[in-house]
Amino acid sequence: MKITTAMVKELRDETGAGVLDAKKALEAYDGDFEKALQELRAKGLAKAAKRAEREAKEGVIEMYAHPGNRVGVMLELNCETDFVGKNERFLELAHELALHIAAMSPTYVSRDQVPAVELERIRTEALDEGKPANIVEKIVSGRVEKLYKEQCLLEQPFVKDEERTVNDLVQAAISVLGENIVVRRFARYELGED
After folding, report:
1. What is the value of pTM for the model shown?
2. Of 1, 39, 75, 127, which residue is least crowded by CB atoms under 10 Å?
3. CA distance readout (Å), 117 to 122, 123, 152
4. Residue range 118-123: mean pLDDT, rounded
């Protein structure tokens, strides 16, 4: 299959890869866009993992008010430099994350923020059900994973593309922008909440 400049441009727009990398990926898979996309995303994730330890203290505070002003979100999204902090793609990511938080109402950024008391509560409830000990561990494990997927922002399916998690979205931005990006914290307010 002939690789066109339009195909290369589309793949670059999706992944942030260089022209040659996008062209090589398309050539390697005879123009199969999805396979080339998967390969470049995998390369991007590997690069992102290398950047994970870098300090991220620049960035933006994104504020989002849902139409009707009944839900509002304040999000701190960090990166390494003010250059990236002002980048349109970074700002778009901050907006998308704030919109997701408004819609999906997570409680924590990541699983390491879930309090031990919450995990212990899940274990206690499972034990109180009177199930055998070997079954209790499987029940607890399943319920904890469910809690992570429902309440941890980075593990939730992204509201606009449920095939990807919020973490996938952040990792893709890291691979495109070339810097570590960290969701530091957020607050979600809903009118009438206690």
Report:
1. 0.72
2. 1
3. 9, 10, 16
4. 89
The residue assigned the tokens 């991007």 is 44
Taking the domain 58-110+152-190, which CATH number applies?
A: 3.30.479.20
Token code pair at residue 124: 């206690």
Q: Which residues is 78 bridged to in the sheet?
A: 59, 182
CB contact at 8 A, 105 and 188: yes
Cβ-contact 119, 144 below 8 angstroms: yes
Instruction: Report whether 165 contacts 155 (CB < 8 A).
Output: yes
Choosing among 1.25.40.850, 3.30.110.30, 1.10.3720.10, 1.10.8.10, the CATH entry for 5-51 is: 1.10.8.10
The pLDDT tens digits for 175-185 are: 888 888 999 99
CA separation for the pair 173, 84 (Å, rounded): 11
Lookup: tokens for 107: 């409680």
